[in-house]
């Protein structure tokens, strides 16, 4: 291991912002076509190079005349002029208007030489070759003079202007087809984990491979901030190759990002490359998450090392890196990038450093925004999707009180609270019903967490299959039944007949986790079997090989059975059916959709209730489902 | 002319929304790569097809063990286990952990068969081939089980989900490389004016050609709303060709837009194509602007005809068409698409139909948003750039009071009030100084409109070259001088010597408009000359050919002279210099930057003052400029 520069004290968040601000990310100017200019930022001032309009232009359909010929004319006593020709829009006039003459002219046409006013057709009549003008005109009437809209030499747009539809309008009026815009900073994202595989490639789970989440998440953040992301996947567990990729990224990009690797060797390589080719500006920042953040230079490029946990990587990216990319690209922080809301629950905290708390949004029954901390316990990916943004909690804050107003820095502008937030059973019918609700959020964490989060004032809705114990006050929005039992290999090779077989035969069983309502149904049925047999329920449980081998979602036990890792798994008939597995029925349970009483009238909650009520087609399509309560 | 269906009554705005909503713009589903998925909308539900993680994963660096081997172990009395191997992240374990055994394991590695817990390295020691575990573990400790984060079969993302960084994260965790997204509605924009030319092409101003503004402006609006714009320029004044282009657009696009043409023949062609191949749903809506709006179908496509004035086209597009495109694309109305503010001035209105009033934003000295009507008189392109959005004024509103709160529907989300809003002289030094201020808005309408708009509480700053008459209370932020005179052809072929030559010789002169401070300086100097000669100023004015031939911006007279359309023009030495023209000096005038007293402390106003104070380089670079007051 190379010697590492020592950074004994963690840097302050301000120092980290300054270190990143000191890095030069700004790319040069590039030229894009007008059609590609929207959303870009003008690199330099554009003065008008021509007059708009470029000629004296008729503002109405009518006749081009000499104003002094009409002095004194009115309805009763029109001026009589000789019609000498006509002028159409887009055509050069082939007529000159002399004293006592008029030329027919259409809107937008060039006012012919000699004429100094246009009279609208409504104020005229014709008699043979004569035009009768029934009004008196002043010179310039109904003419838009050349340059009256935009004059050549005028300042049109300044540097730094973001190009939207209206700027496109001005540019096209000036005939500008190529627009000088600020370049997008190029951001290389170096993938550092030996175990990371690109989405779309085959995953070898037995070798502990996982798909690369951070590279793609951060790349999306880079693009949203106005940068151009380039992914540099690294080829296997080879330090020389890793070093080559880092150097290549540093050569090709304005900024290089990597996110925390589980492999110490990757960090060593990064250190070495920074020491040989750049400068380490800081290592470690007094924020949570992000303590291990690295900031430095790599050759002429900037380098920032992000934490490895996806929500943390996105948080540090959003807080420290995205503003620097936006500055370099000249893009302002978007409107709607923050929202304020009241804490839905109390959150204790006492670590003495600035914390970026991942937070979800939910609306109460009155449409007020509530903010709740997203539990890291849910798993990295689930937390990533549940978190709408982060709340910056100052180091000296001991707790955020329930109801306290906080500001959430959103992970993407335009993120909104879901219309309905449910927690509960993982259920295939529910998955389909949720498709009929706009912007729902649902966490399939099981019946108990569902009721708990409704009780805590976080979730709107709990979906439970456990009998209602009445401890949490709710309103039932709807319910259905599902047949459950044992999922076995196709053809039931072990001749499993029911729960008795689990107890009596030498079968490897896979259970669901204790939060699952299905497990409660299993336990209750086992208690009945124990009564029948005159033994303790505990005796039966101990006789089942794998009763404590618990997995989280409705298909998980079945998949273990199909993978040959178990002989029977707790599951639904619908799951066995969908996966072409065998099924031994045990019972039918009722799944209830329960709302917090003060959230029952939220539009999204009502839509979910309607989806359940109208869900006959969904229940019909799934084996073992029905709507007669068990 | 073909017979037209009669629509005697104007349709209500609601009917127009309904007619457009009745058109089917929705494109099919398409598949994009993960890298291109940001900002798109998921077309269908995605359930997880695999477990995340896909294996039982060590959460820390340490040792994989059997938990029951550690029961009762603590600091003082560690469990002693035989070290039997090691497991790295990304590599399949080649070891099995038996009773009394341990395997070294790194974070993220696969927990080897036999082990059911991981102890973190900090709670262990090694002695030779033995691992001393100084804590008691429960089964499952420090292991993230397969599917604990996301389980196969779980609902991952629902249809209609907008894909941001976090959804990219979830998709990559699931290994999804190709994402089914809603197609973007294809919107054909048919250019209909005979006189329209594409930006980048050569303009024949003598033939009354102008660049096509609406097609490009509306195209940018289409893209911003989530559609894909296609431009169909039409080739000249040929009805058959126009008809062919319309039919082609209808065949290729989900929606066809055209914007009001000045040529009646284009409207006739549109009518004929709609009648032959579609259906006219409504013609004319009781809104201002937009009365002539057409809604119909063309073959299988929808058709909407927009007004021709650019701000009106953008208004009708934003109000009626963009929501339909967003709906079809599945994109929600962006946050920040509206702002509220107080009317800066009173606005009278009594037309009895809904009016979309183009409005600009400005902030008062306290940072409150003010809203002012954008004057159509400024010219089509200038209005387009000045208008930040529109205020919907109900038909029964007779006036909007000064201070009344109104809601502005912005033309682009993230549009903000300029940091400083100035109106006044068109001046090349000012154009450069404004480059040093972020997001300024400046209208070069002349000294008088500048003072008037400061007095009205609309503009922050007036830039004048007329002597201060004290009628508007202001604070002077800075000033400079500029030399003015007569711009003549290079070499001064007519031997112009000064204003006297204009009076005495047969010269064609070009003046500036009456709002220009330069014209005031000219008039004052002519008055002096009249005194000298003992005549009336009016006599001199009448002797000048073209004294009333007035153009708007500082370069305009010079350009007329260079184009051979005049022999002398009112202008600046700097302009003559920049355009390589001749120059006959007449005088020096002072340009003053004056702020409304209650706006003088706005940050943008202070930045402008600083830019003037530090503008020495700008004044040095321009001929005839200085900072010693005249």
Describe this structure in words.
Two copies of one chain form a homodimer. With about 625 residues, chain A is of the alpha/beta class. Chain A folds into five domains: about 15-25 and about 185-330, Molybdenum Cofactor Biosythetic Enzyme, Chain A, CATH 3.40.980.10; about 30-50 and about 150-180, Molybdopterin biosynthesis moea protein, domain 2; about 55-145, Molybdopterin biosynthesis moea protein, domain 3 (Molybdopterin biosynthesis moeA protein, domain 3, Beta Complex), CATH 2.170.190.11; about 340-415, Beta-clip (Beta Barrel), CATH 2.40.340.10; about 465-625, Periplasmic binding protein-like II (D-Maltodextrin-Binding Protein, domain 2, 3-Layer(aba) Sandwich), CATH 3.40.190.10. The first copy, chain A, is about 25% helix and about 30% strand. Chain A contains 16 helices and 37 strands. In chain A, strands 29, 30, 31, 32, 33, 34, 35, 36 and 37 form a nine-stranded mixed beta sheet that branches. In chain A, a hairpin with a 2-residue loop joins strand 8 and strand 9. In chain A, helix 4 crosses helix 5 (about 265-275). The radius of gyration of chain A is 36 Å and the shape is elongated. The two termini of chain A are about 65 Å apart. Residues about 1-5 of chain A have low confidence and may be disordered. Chains A and B meet through helix 2, strand 14, strand 15, helix 3 and helix 7 of A and helix 2, strand 14, strand 15, helix 3 and helix 7 of B.
């Amino acid at each position: 291991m190379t010697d590492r520069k020592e950074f004994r004290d963690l840097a302050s968040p301000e120092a980290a912002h300054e270190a990143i601000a000191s890095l030069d990310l700004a790319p040069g100017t590039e030229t894009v076509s007008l059609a590609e200019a929207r959303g870009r930022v003008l690199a330099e001032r554009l003065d008008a190079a021509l007059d708009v309009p470029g000629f004296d232009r008729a503002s109405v359909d009518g006749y081009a005349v000499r104003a002094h010929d009409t002095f004194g004319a009115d309805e009763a006593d029109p001026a009589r002029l000789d019609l000498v020709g006509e002028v159409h829009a887009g055509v050069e006039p082939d007529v000159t208007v002399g004293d006592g003459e008029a030329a027919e002219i259409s809107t937008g046409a060039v006012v012919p030489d000699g004429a100094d006013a246009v009279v609208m057709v409504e104020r005229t009549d014709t008699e043979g070759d004569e035009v009768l003008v029934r009004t008196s005109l002043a010179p310039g009437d109904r003419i838009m003079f050349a340059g009256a809209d935009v004059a050549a030499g005028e300042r049109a747009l300044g540097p730094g202007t973001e190009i939207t539809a209206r700027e496109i309008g001005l540019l096209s009026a000036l005939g500008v087809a190529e627009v000088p815009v600020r370049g997008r900073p190029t951001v290389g994202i170096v993938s550092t984990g030996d175990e990371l595989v690109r989405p779309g490639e085959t995953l070898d789970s037995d070798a502990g491979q996982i798909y690369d989440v951070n590279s793609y998440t951060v790349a999306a953040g880079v693009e949203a901030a106005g940068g151009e992301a380039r992914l540099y996947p690294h080829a296997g567990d080879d330090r020389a190759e890793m070093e080559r990729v880092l150097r290549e990224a540093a050569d090709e990009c304005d900024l290089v990002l990597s996110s925390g690797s589980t492999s110490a060797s990757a960090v060593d390589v990064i250190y070495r490359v920074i020491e040989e080719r750049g400068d380490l500006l800081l290592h470690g920042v007094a924020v949570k998450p992000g303590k291990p953040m690295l900031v430095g230079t790599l050759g002429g490029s900037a380098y920032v090392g992000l934490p490895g946990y996806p929500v943390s990587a996105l948080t540090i990216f959003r807080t420290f890196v995205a503003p620097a990319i936006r500055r370099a690209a000249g893009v302002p922080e978007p409107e709607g990038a923050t929202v304020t809301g009241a804490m839905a629950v109390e959150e204790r905290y006492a670590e003495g450093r600035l914390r970026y708390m991942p937070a979800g949004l939910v609306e109460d029954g009155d449409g007020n925004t509530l903010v709740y901390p997203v539990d890291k316990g849910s798993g990295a990916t689930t937390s990533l999707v549940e978190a709408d943004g982060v709340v910056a909690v100052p180091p000296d804050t001991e707790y955020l009180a329930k109801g306290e107003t906080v500001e959430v820095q959103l992970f993407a502008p335009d993120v909104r609270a879901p219309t309905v937030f449910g927690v509960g059973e993982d259920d295939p019918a529910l998955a389909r019903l949720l498709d009929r609700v706009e912007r729902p959020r649902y966490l399939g964490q099981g019946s108990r967490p569902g009721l708990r989060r409704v009780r805590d004032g976080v979730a709107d809705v709990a979906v439970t299959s456990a009998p209602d114990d009445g401890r949490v006050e709710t309103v039932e929005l709807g319910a259905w039944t599902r047949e459950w039992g044992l999922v076995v290999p196709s053809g039931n090779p072990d001749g499993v007949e029911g729960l008795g077989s689990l107890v009596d035969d030498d079968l490897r069983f896979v259970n669901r986790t204790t939060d699952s309502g299905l497990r409660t149904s299993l336990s209750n049925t086992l208690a009945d079997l124990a009564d029948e047999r005159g033994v303790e329920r505990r005796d039966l449980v101990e006789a089942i090989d794998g009763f404590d081998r618990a997995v989280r979602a409705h298909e998980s036990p079945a998949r273990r059975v199909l993978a040959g890792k178990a002989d029977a798994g707790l599951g639904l008939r619908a799951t066995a059916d969908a996966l072409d597995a065998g099924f031994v029925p045990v019972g039918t349970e009722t799944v209830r959709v329960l709302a917090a009483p003060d959230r029952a009238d939220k539009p999204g909650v009502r839509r979910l209730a309607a989806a359940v009520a109208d869900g006959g087609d969904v229940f019909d399509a799934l084996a073992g489902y029905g709507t007669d309560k068990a």
